[in-house]
Design a protein that fits this description.
six-stranded antiparallel beta sheet; four-stranded antiparallel beta sheet; 25 helices
Length: about 850
């Protein structure tokens, strides 16, 4: 948790690497994932950088892998999961072998695919020919055979002469079924009705040899007379992409041709089967190594992309790179560079220098699987400025607690606990789910948040004594009934005075007797409204106090007196005083006292009292009661209001006047990042952090005003003062959402119980049991869908707003940029999410 208090110290480093060791050194840095490189070739075109050839080579390898992966998925082969054994980046010799293997595999796959398409095309043509021959058997009658057979009665007469003498010619083929009607109309038009078309739809679809999609076709025979009409029909068939096949007019010749076609189809089917088996064996062999190859190529490409960020020195014998490194990880980086040089046997070691700079470093907060979800909530608002206090540390507790205040129900909290606990306990298995969808990834990423929200909701549910809108009598009610049986039965409602009907205080939470009270909502409204204001003021006070942490760290000690003191006084003297009066009212008034002025009936309204305090007004009290809770209250309230009003000009003018009288006249140093002493780090040596130091007053969460005109300083401070004063009032009222959503959640839960489940509980007999079963299912569905999902999401968003706006605005600027290290793990995880 100590790492989350504020972001890591960062150092800007310069590394010098020998070209032969550059690949392995960057590979080692990618495995560690603790270095963010800077681009030293901003003005160089991406196609003119040193390693652009290697990047293109990796792109080509990726293309081949994608092609092979597509073919593997097409055959339904499952790729193995290698999350537990991720290979390292390949060395140059492995790259050559991998490239040759992929080239051979791709060529073989392309050849197999082309041969398969050719054989399937041949198979399709033979199948269509067989269908034509089989379906045209019914098109020809014995008389047509006698009429069409050119060898009968006119042995040596050609087809043209036969047609001239009155005999009919024909064309047979196959056409797509959706084009048949247009095809038939076109034949009618070009022949003026002199073509006789007979067709028959194929019952079974044929497969497209290229795509494998089913194709529905129709066999047709067009009878005509004349050579000119025959040429026209063939042109129409070509235009409609109809396949024409030879069809003998003789019945015996057709039978003989069908037998030959069937024999060729059987032979071709055998060849296709053997080709498929060979293809499957090749793909099954490749699929075992393909995931590893894909990861190796991605790592290799990332390495060369990173090397393109380096700059070559003038002697062309050294690569120079700049990077941001957390100071705690400098020994790790030094070791990675040494391991990279040793891997290639380089005799010249790599050097790492720390550079002094005034440039703002990136923000890096170390997180684990528990704190990562809370840190993501903060980063969604804005990445913290460098070394600024991190709200995520406190959000781990305040976020689920404020959520639970609005979601206080023991039953609904248990549902969240069970769901969150299931995800936490099964996270090793669930983390392997890659295609769960965006919603599932959000739920799984926030599994610890859901678990804590459920636990806190169970706690507040016990405080509210609320489980599915019902109460539990765990310790026995402290209210007693002093009426006899006749009085109770004869009166629809009875009043129970607290001075005679109570004995002691319920040990924990609300007394269950309030479940039966007619004034339950009035009591809970008052109770939860006051709790909302109390929690809200405490939350805001804590946020204002956190600004002291930033002022102290950035050595802006004057801001403690000029900003923090007036802000905390304004908040405490007005709204902190209102919270104090709530507790004082609870303690001072008692139902069992003999003094009328101290009875609950004389307790003044804290809200009315606060309004009168701000307006310097008085409200006449009831007879026998006091207007104020203690003797000197009017004087104390006037003093608090006057001091609070004095804090406004204090905030408005204090800081600008301080800047005016202490403004420095010396010019700022240029932010050009010069070497400090050109100190070289030996292996295992950790330097003193020098990055972004020297003038921390303008660092991180601070504002530098030395180069601003005084008019802008005054305007900026006026905006800040107006925003704080108005937001103090509006933010306090904003915390009333805790009361509103808690009341809405409780009422919805009660409505579901009374309007749904209670109907089933009132049924009797066998029909009642069946009805209760169905109604209970509906009640469970509505509970999960409305109260847990919808109300839970609503409470989550309202809690998020309270942290982003009401809490973090008091001290958090969020003007930084995230630390994005060169990490193979981050690259691979990012591509899996895409």
């Amino acid at each position: 948790m100590g790492d989350m208090f504020r972001s890591e110290e960062m150092a800007l480093c310069q590394m010098f690497i020998q070209p032969e060791a550059a690949y392995t050194s960057v590979s080692e840095l990618g495995e560690t994932g603790c270095v963010q490189f800077r681009d030293l070739n901003v003005n160089v075109n991406a196609f003119q950088r040193k390693f652009v050839t290697e990047v293109r080579r990796c792109d080509e390898l990726e293309r081949k892998i994608r092609y092979i992966e597509t073919e593997i998925k097409k055959d339904g082969i499952v790729l193995p999961d290698i999350q537990d054994d991720i290979p390292r980046a390949p060395n140059p010799r492995e790259i050559i072998d991998l490239e040759a293997h992929l080239e051979k595999t791709e060529s073989e796959m392309i050849e197999l695919a082309q041969n398969e398409v050719n054989m399937k095309s041949n198979y399709l043509e033979l199948t269509e020919l067989r269908k034509v021959l089989e379906n045209t058997q019914g098109f020809f009658s014995d008389q047509e055979v006698l009429n069409l057979d050119s060898t009968n009665r006119a042995g040596g007469v050609d087809e043209a002469t036969a047609q001239h003498r009155g005999r009919l010619g024909f064309v047979a083929g196959v056409i797509n079924r959706e084009r048949v009607f247009a095809f038939e109309r076109m034949l009618w038009r070009i022949s003026r009705g002199n073509v006789f078309l007979k067709r028959s739809d194929l019952d079974e679809p044929l497969n497209d040899p290229a795509t494998g999609h089913p194709i529905y076709k129709t066999v047709f025979v067009a009878f005509f007379q004349g050579e000119q009409l025959k040429n026209r029909i063939k042109k129409v068939c070509t235009g409609f992409h109809a396949s024409l096949y030879p069809c003998p007019s003789s019945h015996n010749e057709r039978e003989e041709m069908v037998r030959n076609v069937r024999t060729r189809l059987e032979d071709l089917k055998l060849v296709l089967s053997q080709t498929e088996d060979h293809r499957s064996r090749v793909l099954a062999t490749v699929s075992k190594n393909l995931p590893s190859w894909s990861i190796m190529v991605k790592k290799m490409k990332a390495i060369y992309h990173t090397l393109n960020l380096f700059n070559m020195d003038v002697t062309k014998k050294c690569l120079i790179g700049e990077c941001w490194v957390p100071t705690k990880d400098l020994p790790i980086v030094q070791k990675a560079l040494s391991d990279g040089s040793a891997a290639v046997g380089s005799t010249i070691p790599s050097f790492l220098n720390v550079i002094d700079t005034n440039e703002q470093p990136p923000t890096f907060n170390r997180t684990n699987k528990f704190t990562r979800g809370f840190q993501n909530l903060i980063d969604a608002y804005g990445v913290a400025s460098y070394r600024e206090a991190n709200p995520a540390l406190y959000t781990c507790i305040t976020f689920p607690f404020l959520f639970a205040v609005m979601f206080g129900d023991l039953g609904h909290g248990l549902i969240l606990v069970l769901f969150g606990a299931w995800m936490v306990l099964s996270e090793k298995k669930l983390v392997r789910i890659r295609n769960g969808g965006e919603i599932w990834n959000i739920f799984f990423g926030g599994r610890y948040i859901i678990l804590l929200m459920g636990l806190f909701a169970c706690y507040t549910g016990l405080v509210y004594n609320d489980i599915f809108s019902k109460s539990m009598n765990l310790f026995g009610s402290r209210w007693s009934n002093n009426y006899n049986t006749t009085t109770v039965l004869s009166n629809p409602s009875l009043q129970m005075p607290p001075n005679s009907s109570t004995h002691g205080v319920y040990p924990f939470g609300l007394d269950p007797v309030w479940q039966l009270a007619d004034n339950k909502i009035i009591f809970l409204n008052s109770f939860k409204m006051k709790l909302s204001i109390i929690f809200g003021v405490l939350h805001m006070v804590f946020g204002v106090c956190m600004s002291v942490v930033n002022f102290t760290h950035f050595k802006r000690y004057a801001s403690i007196f000029l900003e923090f003191v007036p802000q905390i006084l304004f908040l405490l003297l007005l709204f902190g005083y209102m919270v104090f009066m709530m507790f004082f009212k609870w303690v001072s008034y008692n139902a069992k006292t003999d003094i009328q002025a101290e009875t609950p009936g004389c307790a003044p309204s804290v809200l009315i009292m606060f309004i009168n305090m701000m307006l310097f007004k008085n409200t006449p009290p009831p007879k026998g009661c006091n207007e104020f809770m203690f003797e000197s209250q009017p004087q104390v309230q006037k003093a608090f209001v006057l001091v609070g009003l004095c804090c406004i000009p204090w905030m408005l003018l204090g800081k600008p006047l301080y800047i005016k009288f202490t403004r420095k006249n010396n010019a700022h140093a240029k932010h050009n990042g010069q070497l400090t002493g050109n100190m070289e780090l030996a292996e295992g040596e950790t330097p003193l952090p020098t990055g972004f130091s020297g003038n921390e007053e303008n660092a991180g969460g601070a504002h530098g005003h030395d180069d601003e005109p005084m008019s802008e300083v005054y305007i900026h401070q006026a905006i800040h003062t107006i925003e704080y004063v108005l937001s103090t009032i509006s933010h306090t009222a904003s915390y009333l959402r805790l009361w509103a959503l808690s009341l809405a959640h409780a009422q919805l839960s009660e409505v579901l119980w009374n309007m749904v489940l209670s109907l089933g509980l009132k049924m009797s007999g066998v029909g009642g049991a069946i009805g209760l079963f169905l109604i209970f299912g509906a009640w469970c569905l509505f509970t999960l869908a409305i109260l847990v999902l919808m109300e839970g999401l609503s409470a989550f968003l309202h809690t998020l707003r309270l942290h982003w706006v009401e809490f973090m605005s008091k001290f958090y600027e969020g003007l930084g940029y995230a630390f994005q290290p060169f990490s193979f793990k981050a690259i691979l995880d990012g591509e899996e999410e895409e």
